[in-house]
Each structure stands twice: as structure tokens, then as C-alpha cells.
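Researcher: I'm preparing a figure for a lab meeting and need a structural model of a single chain. I don't have an experimental structure, so a prediction will have to do for now. The sequence is pasted below. Please return the structure as C-alpha cells so I can convert it later.
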Amino acid sequence: MGFYQRDFMEGTRGTMGVDWEERIDFQRMRRERKERALERMREAGLGSMLLVNDPNVRYVTGLAMTGGSGADHYTLLTEDGDVVHWDTADHASNQRFNCPWLDDIRYAAPGLGNVPRASGSSSARDWLKDKMADLVVEAMAEYGVEKEPMGIDVGNRSLLSKFEERGVDVRPGECADVMEDARKVKTRDEIECLRMVAALCEAGFQRITETAKPGMRESEVWGEATKELWRLGAMVQGGYVTSGPNTWPKHQANTTDRVIRPGDLVYADFYNIGFMGYRSCYYRTFSVGEPTQAQQDAYEKARDDLYDVLERIEPGATTDEICEGFPDEAGEQMDWYGADEFWEMTTNHWAHGLGLQLYEVPLIWRGLSPDHPIEIEEGMTMAVETMRPADRQGVRVEEMVVVRENGVEILSQWPVEEITTIEH
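Model: Understood. Here is the structure written out cell by cell.
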């Protein structure tokens, strides 16, 4: 199919809101996301859904869920499109003032997570779940959906039993399917958020080229990169810089206090860098001084593997067909790892969906896709990543893409043809 070519002036613009051109339309994004979830909920025969997982809550409400202590914020979406949101005292009071598109915000009883766990009391944990269930059932009755099936996106057995005791037909499986289906294909504004986060990552890569040199520690270089990301408005909730022998196999601690030396390969994985909640996954490899011929050859092979996969991705293709572009047993270095099957090689060569979470639909991987294929759809967004070892070090490379009708659009734009050389 080839690659999608953007039109003139199509793509990332400024990071701020302005009145003189159309940029990301957040009002439209909130509306379209909620409509997608609502349409699929109705198709599934659910009268309401209780959303506890942060990405699902954000998808439906637009609220900036940045992590919490568990079920201290949750949202009920009804079949008529009504939204009831429960949150902590400070958050709820701020949301009432700042979020006029939500008109029913209440205080939460945290039935799951850190609060009940920290109580140290089984009776306290039971009371909190009872209280959470009571609050939700009361709201269901107010909005006339108490007799209809309710989806829920967590499978906590004790919480489910609380709803069942109150006569609620609670359905966790259907809710998971609804939200997975709603979120797997992105709207135009969601895609622009991902394009924007790729641009912010590239600013972080630039900072690495300016600071990675002999005598700097990995942690110092990573600190400079994250400072740049925060300056531009990114939410940094993951990622790392690693160097030299830590690049293959990838060090378990990721960024360490290792001192960078001449001749080192350095790679950065900007994963879980967020813009408006949308997450990146974006690798690039750097060399402190000229890379060796073996390292250049390894990088060329990793890049070619990556683009072999990209050229297979199109609407209607299936993940079992696409995963054949990833390396075979030899390319996976399975003998070195002592691995016999592809499922043992998690994270080395695969493609995974991107959105409000780091891993969304689809997953393209030799460890699963041959026996469990799914079909690729236009509008899916994903990160595709490959790696290779060379001279006791390793190279990694990754692209962020969106599936278009005539091939993938590559959202990432940092040069990919060869290892980025850092002079010192």
C-alpha cells in the first residue's frame, strides 16, 4: 500500500488554543468519544456503564485522570447519555467549577485501591464497597436505569457481589468489549493529540543530542530530556535513556547512574509521554562518536524489519499476516536468550496500539497473532518497534503510525535512516 502523505499544512500546529486557525477541537473530541462509547453501549444492550479505569473515565468525561488511589473516582454513563461522576473532595469541587459539560459531580466513596487497603480493617473495606455500591445504585434509580444491565470495567469479585446483592444485573465482560471497541479507532482530534506528542518527544531527542557526552550519567541526560518535555506541556509518566552495555539486553532498571563513554550507543524510549492523556511510544538510537560498521549493519537490519512490518499494515489486513514481517527465531536472538517459543520474547519485536493507554488494540506479535488474529481497521493508531544487538551493545527503533485507507501515516519524524551520531 505504501505510506500516507499529508497534505500541505496538515499536521501538528501550535500547542496552544488560538482563534485564528483550527487546531485540536477538544470540545468535539469529548463529544465524539462519548458518542462512540454510548453507541456501542446501546448496541451491547446495556442500560449503563460504571467506569473505574482512568483511561475509560477520561474517554467519556474528558477529565484529566492522572492516576489516583484506586476507585476514588468513577463515572456512570447511562443509555440516555447522562453522566454522573464521583471523585475526591478537592477534585470534585474543582470539576464543578471548571467542567461545565458535566452537571452531576458527586463525592466518591473509594471502594477499591489504596484507601480500603490502607485501612487495615476488613470491616472498613467491606463498608467502603457497600457505600460505593449504594451511591451508584441510587444514581441509577434517579436516572431510571436501575432495572437495566450495567456494564462495569473492573472484575473485582467482591465489588461485583455488592451490586448483585442490590439486584443489579452487572456485566463486566460486555463493558470491557464496549470500551475496547469504542477506543480502538481514533477520531481526527485524537490522532492530532498523538501527532503532537510525537513532536514533543522529538524535542526530547534533540535535548539528548545536546547533552549526551562522555562524563554525563544516563540519569542526567534523561533529566534534561524530561525537563524539555515538561517545558512543552507533556506529562512524563514513563520512558528512559540507557547506554553502552545497558542497551542489550535492555537493563532491568532502565535509566541508571552509568557514566556515558566514547563509543557508546545510547537509546531513548519515550513511552508514556502524554499530551492531553494520549501516550507515546517512540524509540531512537544515538551513538557517542561514529558507530562501528557492525552497529550500522545491525541498525539497518532493525530499520528494514520495522519498515517491512509497516508496509504490511493496511485496513483489512490481519495481524497474523502482518507479524510475519517481524524477525524469525534467529533475528529474535532466541538461542542467546535460551527461549524456545516466541511468546517468551515479550516487548522485543511487536506493534501495539496507542491512545489513552500505552497498550491498546491492536497487538501485532509473533507470540500471539498467528493463532489469535484480528483485523486492522482504518483509524487505528500504534507503535511498531524492533531491535538488534551488535558489538555487545544494541540498537532499537520505533515509529508511531496511524492506519489510513491508502497505507500508514507515520506520525514520528525524527530521522530514521541511520543512527544519530553525537559528536563530542
